[in-house]
Amino acid sequence: MILGLDHIGLATADPGPAGAQLAALGLARTDRGTAEPYGVACEFWSLPGGAPAPAVELVSPVRDGSAVDGRLREQGPGLYHLAFTVDDLEQERDRLRAEGFLSLDARPCRGARPGMRVSFLYLPDPAELLIELVHYAPAG
Questions:
Q1: Cα–Cα distance between 131 and 61 in angstroms, integer?
Q2: What is the CATH number of domain 2-136?
Q3: For the chain, how far is it from start to end, CA to CA, in angstroms?
Q4: Phi-psi group of 26: left, alpha or beta (phi > 0 → left; psi -120 to 50 → alpha; rest → beta)
Q5: Does the pTM of the predicted model rise above 0.85?
Q6: Domain positions in the chain
Q7: Alpha carbon 89 to its chain's center
């Protein structure tokens, strides 16, 4: 089951200027890491204090052939994906595949945050929507 919106991913070749813009909006970088299977660096930005809210993730390539290379080359920087936290990654991936989403990963991969596993799906029509399903290992 989908539990909520985890983050909104923005593709950028250079996270520095984009991070400065997010800081001007009052967001602070709260986490960062590398999603090695995808060849990308990820920075997570959120409003400081207060209740947990969806983050904005800046996704940038760390090597040629990264998952965002084609997106940046063909469309430039901008909205890349919507990421949803789920209680069961494989079950939710299979459910969405039955609804017409195309699975981009043969199996879930390690994400950019500790304990994070992810799987990407794509829905070409009507919105060309890239979805990331996110599952976090229980703390401890």
A1: 18
A2: 3.10.180.10
A3: 23
A4: left
A5: yes
A6: 2-136
A7: 14
